[in-house]
């Protein structure tokens, strides 16, 4: 029997470790592989041969791993470029040295592209090596799935903090605006999810070109109507010409995505400068939402774990490579108002490098939020809470493998 | 029998409504007062006669009120100035009109000063009127108590988000600093509490004059030693000359306190400009910590509720006025490593207008965090979680009375 390798990439989430736990646990239930190695820091550390043996992780540690936020193996921003045969060859050498046949890669769009590229390359140059993707992203922007693991928990945190900060805001009489900024570079799923609370007066998404005059007119209306205006903005909100609202300078990360931040501060200043109200409060969720240890969605942690199981189980088929596992909503159940899912697998190429935007038909005009269809989509995802193992008043977490 | 009035003032907390619930419930258990009126928006709405009858709030609503963050009666920043006889007379007139003998005021230092001023004034001009304080403040800076209701829950949130964002930060290999900004204008209790997580490399408190060179030297050391540096800064951190670190302009609120924000961004830029690392991440907890609906401390919610009960029960004594109820740690129990408390009442003047800073002897030199004594003080406060009543995946909350 050969061994397998599992690694994590991209931005951490609240449940990316649940998928990792699923892979490890599946191999304990059915030892298809002799050893399960964790590649530290995604492709980056794996290429340096930094592996951690996860095969015999104790049951209790697996339980704690499921509730540990962030990437317990460490993550990376390093992207394997297509045509970079040296890196591909090096990875295969490292796999050979440890008798690894199969690599599971847990990540977002870019990582699924890596899975596709590696599987295609291996077909010709290393046909015994297999590459399998497990999706995650708080952005919820992968195309062929109903939703991405990580998103439901991030949405649950966003809704909780949105409602709590709305109540805080609503306790005051003084005229001021409140602007909550939520992660979301190219897709506004996370920002839109906060409409579940019923507290959001105006919602600014990347999917709609921002029009300053139209926006300010709506802010003025809200203050005229109800004396308050609670605004949620996606970090990726932009003008018609593509310029981001965020005030800060746009630096670049390794993936040539703009590093965003400051859209909320921009809106606040805009409202003050327009003379609508003299004050504003900005709350930026930033990383507090994406990988929380206090607010996993039960649906999310279960699905992420099950996707880890599913990827491992499907890999017992020696022809299974270049595939990604995913979750689809059961249409018949949804029509009856129930939430149920189907697990499936599809070609990594269909997951990679596309961005599923928040549907235009779910966006109400004039920044008034989202339709009932959108709320019906979000509601079941944030349902339920796992029973957390606590330690001194805080959720217990596992020491990251990259810090041992 | 006469009636009573209860109002809330100052910044909301996660448990200020638990104290309100305690007052309402106490009167259902022993109807010392015919009616329990809630004054909307503290003194401000009360002076306008905006009262809400809370006497018969259903048991289920009382349970939900206990877990509802922010101030369900609304709050204010309006301060009754000593010598403002017109306002005092007006308040007494409003109390007379509703046959109200006793006012319970839930608030921080300034509100306890209001209780003291009103009680003193009433002694001469309206001897039948009584004013009783119930403390709250996430800043934890009231003098005669061991800790203030609201602080333990805020500390629990701060610790949870600190640990989660540390794990997020620790997943990366790239050289960058992380700076978490926490509320705390004049006292660093909340920032210091995050040291419970064991994740904090450097801690910047208002109690210690900030020295840029010394700080940067410590940042450099951490990167040299461990390749990372997780920093927590209190919003009120300042230089020796009293100037705040916060980059933003200092506006003034009604209480002549500077409005702060931006200390973390200042530190991040400082580190980048010094060439220590090329990047930094800022997370500002801001209002997400002070009145959360997802992370009450069980100790906190119970104590806040019990203080509401205690204030009402003690008010059965007709001479009880100008007093504030509070919690002291049981010294004998603490010596045995157990957490227990004693409830007491003391003159409002002792609670008002003093700031209890974080003890100098608990601060380690060179921004290295806090002593074991400090950790032993914090630990029991964040223990335990109430069993929340959930509604569609979010903690159920009561519609604020000021929004009905």
UniProtKB/TrEMBL annotation, chains A, B:
Keywords: Cytoplasm, Glycolysis, Kinase, Magnesium, Metal-binding, Transferase. The keyword Transmembrane does not apply. Its cofactor is Mg(2+). Substrate binds at residues 137-139, 183-185, 235. It catalyses: beta-D-fructose 6-phosphate + diphosphate = beta-D-fructose 1,6-bisphosphate + phosphate + H(+). Gene3D superfamilies: 3.40.50.450, Phosphofructokinase domain. The keyword Glycoprotein does not apply. One of its GO terms (biological process) is fructose 6-phosphate metabolic process. GO terms for molecular function: 6-phosphofructokinase activity; diphosphate-fructose-6-phosphate 1-phosphotransferase activity; metal ion binding. PANTHER family: ATP-DEPENDENT 6-PHOSPHOFRUCTOKINASE 1 (PTHR45770). This is Pyrophosphate--fructose 6-phosphate 1-phosphotransferase. It comes from Paraeggerthella hongkongensis.
């Amino acid at each position: 029997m050969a061994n397998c390798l599992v690694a994590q990439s991209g931005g951490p989430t609240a449940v990316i470790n649940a998928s990792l736990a699923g892979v490890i646990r599946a191999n304990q239930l059915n030892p298809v592989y002799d050893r399960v190695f964790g590649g530290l820091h995604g492709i980056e550390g794996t290429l340096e041969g930094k592996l951690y043996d996860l095969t015999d992780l104790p049951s209790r540690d697996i339980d704690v791993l499921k509730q540990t936020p962030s990437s317990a193996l460490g993550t990376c921003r390093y992207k394997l470029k297509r045509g970079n045969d040296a890196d591909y060859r090096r990875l295969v050498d490292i796999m050979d040295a440890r008798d690894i046949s199969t690599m599971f890669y847990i990540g977002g769009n870019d990582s699924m592209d890596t899975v596709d590229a590696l599987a295609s390359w291996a077909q010709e140059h290393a046909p015994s090596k297999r590459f399998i993707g497990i999706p995650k992203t708080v952005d919820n922007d992968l195309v062929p799935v109903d939703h991405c693991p990580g998103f439901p928990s991030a949405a649950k945190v966003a809704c909780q903090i949105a409602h709590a900060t709305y109540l805080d805001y609503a306790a005051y009489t003084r005229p001021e605006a409140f602007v909550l900024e939520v992660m979301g570079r190219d897709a506004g799923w996370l920002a839109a999810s906060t409409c579940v609370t019923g507290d959001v007066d105006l919602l600014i998404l990347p999917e709609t070109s921002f029009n300053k005059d139209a926006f300010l007119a709506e802010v003025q209306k809200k203050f005229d109507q109800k004396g308050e205006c609670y605004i949620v903005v996606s970090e990726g909100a932009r003008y018609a010409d593509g310029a981001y609202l965020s005030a800060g300078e746009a630096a670049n990360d390794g993936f040539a995505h703009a590093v965003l931040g400051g859209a909320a501060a921009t809106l606040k200043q805009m409202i003050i400068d327009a003379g609508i109200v003299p004050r504003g409060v900005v709350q930026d969720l930033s990383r507090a939402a994406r990988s929380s240890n206090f607010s996993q969605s039960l649906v999310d942690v279960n699905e992420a774990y099950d996707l880890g199981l599913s990827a491992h189980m499907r890999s017992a088929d020696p022809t299974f490579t270049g595939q990604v596992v995913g979750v689809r909503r059961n249409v018949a159940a949804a029509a009856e108002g129930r939430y149920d899912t189907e697990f499936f697998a599809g070609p990594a190429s269909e997951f990679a490098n596309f961005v599923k935007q928040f549907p235009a038909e779910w966006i109400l005009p004039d920044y008034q939020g989202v339709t009932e269809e959108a709320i019906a989509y979000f509601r079941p995802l944030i349902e339920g809470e796992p029973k957390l193992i606590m330690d001194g008043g805080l959720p217990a977490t596992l020491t990251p493998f990259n810090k041992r």
